[in-house]
Amino acid sequence: MASGTTTSISVRFLVALLDQAGNPPDALLRDAGLSREQLGSPELQFPLEAFDRLWADAAALQPAIGLRLIDRFPPGQMHVVTHLALRSATVGEALAAVVRFMAVNDSDDQMMLEVDADVATLCYANPKLINGARRNPWIVEHFLSMTWVFLCGACARELPLDQVQFMAPMQSAMSDYRERFGRDPGFGEDRNALIFGRDALDWPLLTHDHYLLSILERFASEHLPAAAQSISDQARDVLRRGWLSGEPPTLAQTASACGVGKDALRSRLADAGLSFRQLKDDARRDLAKVHLAGRLSIGEIAYLLGFSEPAALQHAVKRWFGVSAGEFRKRHAVT
């Protein structure tokens, strides 16, 4: 039995499919302790056991549902993590956001991004849970299909896909997979993965929006289960919120917000190859990206981020991004 929950909006589309087929899942919803009115809530926490049963019932009607459910999503209707990813600047940043915030969507499954000299590999893990191995091949197909569809659309070109791998057996006709990915996947593999040329990580997204990205990142950070965040991610979030409020927290304040002592925070950051000073610099950098894409003057941004003078901000921007503040602003200004 699955132990966690999901906030996936696919729940409502699976329910609609079963309703249309004359097989309404009311008993399943009742067993999960949920009403139909709750299905449209962005705060919905749907039990994974019931979620997996929904997928199995839908697949009994449409074997290609894992590949095709994304086609039922109306334009603009997607999970907050997907919205966040699509507001990123590049494919690589989008996938990094999905990896980091996956737990907001699903408390047990994981995304991982591996990069080597020539290829990038995005893996999706359907882990073993408390009472045995969870087997939901359709949600794996759904996540990889959704990633492929949205990123190709955001780039206005197809990613240079080398391989598609699934751990489970084939769930539908090979032609369905070929139509979705443009190639035949491998089945019975040791991982679920999209493997594509590394250069595509630098491709820009046409859906990029610096301002909206910052809002969505804050929302996702606040809704990320504490156990899913590393101590460095927790500290980064505390620092970002501090800079935004105009009162960046001290080491002691940050440690307290993370539920540890100063020495423990220093030690755990050091174990990850990080320092508190570096995290403060990272937080400043991230907020500088947001402000430089807006309409504040360089002087105003320098003041907000605690620099002694605009020239100090200019030096920092050159160090962070390799270009002047003016050039960065030209490239990323919100129109």
How does this structure look, described?
The chain has 335 residues and is of the alpha+beta class. It is 52% helix and 10% strand. It has a 4-stranded antiparallel β-sheet. A two-stranded antiparallel sheet has the order 1-2. A hairpin with a 3-residue loop joins strand 3 (110-115) and strand 4 (119-125). Helix 14 (298-304) packs across helix 15 (310-321). The chain is globular, with a radius of gyration of 22 Å. The model has no long low-confidence stretch (mean pLDDT 85).
State the distance separating the first and last CA atoms.
49 Å
Strand order of the largest sheet: 3-4-8-7
Rg measurement, Å: 22 Å
Number of strands: 8
Characterize the largest beta sheet: strand count, sense, and whether it forms a barrel.
Answer: 4 strands, antiparallel
**How many DSSP helices?**
16
Estimate what percentage of residues fall within beta strands: 5-15%
Helix residue percentage: 40-55%
